[in-house]
Amino acid sequence: MAALFGAIMIACGAQSGSDSDGTGQGGIGFAVPGAGDAGLLQPAGGATGKGNPTLGADGKTCGFEQLPLERLPAELLLVLDRSTSMITDRLQNAETNWTVLTRALDGTINKTQAGVLWGLKTFPTTSACGVQGGVEHDVAVNNYAAINATVMRSTPGNNNGTPTTAAMNAATNYLKGRTTQNPKYLLLATDGEPTCFNGNGSRNSTDIPAAIAAVGNAAQEGFHTFVVGIAPQRQVGRALETLNAMAVAGAEPRAGDTKFFSVTSEAELSAALEAIAGQVGSCTFSLSKAPPSPDDVAVDIDGKRIARSDVDGWQYNAAKTSIVLNGALCEAARKGSLKRVEITFGCAGVAIPVL
Length: 355
Description:
The protein is α/β, with parallel strands linked by helices. Helices cover about 25% and strands about 25% of the residues. The protein has a six-stranded mixed sheet, with helices on both faces. Strands 4-1-17-13-14 form a five-stranded mixed sheet, with no helix packed on it. A four-stranded antiparallel sheet has the order 5-12-16-15. The longest helix has 16 residues, at about 95-110. It is elongated.
C-alpha cells in the first residue's frame, strides 16, 4: 500500500528552565512534520519559543516527536488435514478433496503472500495418528513456493486418521512461541470428524470434544481459528455439528446457521480461502513504545480525529504496543484506502491539538 503512515508522539520530561526575564527558550515546541525549525508551533509563549512550555498535570513539559508507524501484516498458520478420506472422498467435479484443496490453496497463497504471512502445519505428520511438534514452515512473507512444494509431496496415505486435537495443540504452542507483535490466526482445513482419541494409534476412534476444546484453547491464547469444512457429507449430521462447534470455539464463526466455511466445489473453496485471507488483512499498527499516559492519546486518519471505540474506531492491543482499527476503518485499511495515520501520545491533562 502506497499510503504514508506516521506517528506523532509527545515526549514527557522534566520542566525546562527559562531566563529570569521570561524571554528564555521555553522547551520543545509542536513539530509540524517536514517543516523544520520554521514549523515549530509553540504550546505557550508564541511562535518564537519565548515563555513557558505547556505543562502536564504532573508538572512535566510536553513536546511532539514524529516517529514511523508500521502496519503489521497478519500471520496465518494453515493447519492442513492429511487424513485418508482426503484422497478417497470427492467433490462435485469428481476430483478428490486433496486435489481440489491443494489447487485452491496454491492460487490463494500465491495471490496473498505479500500481504499475509503464511505458515504450514500438516496432520497427521506420519501415518495413523502421529503428529510431531512444530510446523513444516514458519509463517513468513512470500512463502508460497516453500509451502506449495511441501504440500505437493504430502499426499495422504491409506492409513491416516484425523488427529485434529494434537495438530491444534501443536499449532497453538508454535504461535505462543513467536514474539512478534503481528496478529496471529489459524486456518483449519479438514474434511473429516476428529479421530485418534487421546492421541492413541486408532485412526477410527472419535475425538470430538477434545478437538473442540483445542480450538477453544487457541482462541483463549489469542489465536482465532477459521474452520474450512470440505466435501458434501460435511453438511449434515454429526460432522456439521462438530465443524460448527469448532468454528464457534475458534471465535471466527460465520453468520447464519452454518458457522464454518462449508465448501462443496472448487469455486466455493477458492472463494472461502480468499475471503479468509481478506479478513485477516492487517488492521494493526505497531508503536515503538507503550504510551506514557495511555488515556491521553489521539489518533488521526487522513486529517480526521478518530474516537477510541469498538465500533468504527480504534483500541490498543493487550500490551499497548500497537493500535487496532475496527469496523469500517479496518475495512478501509485492508483495502489500502487509508493515506495517513498519525498517533499522538500526550501527557496527563494536556489537550492534544489537531495538526
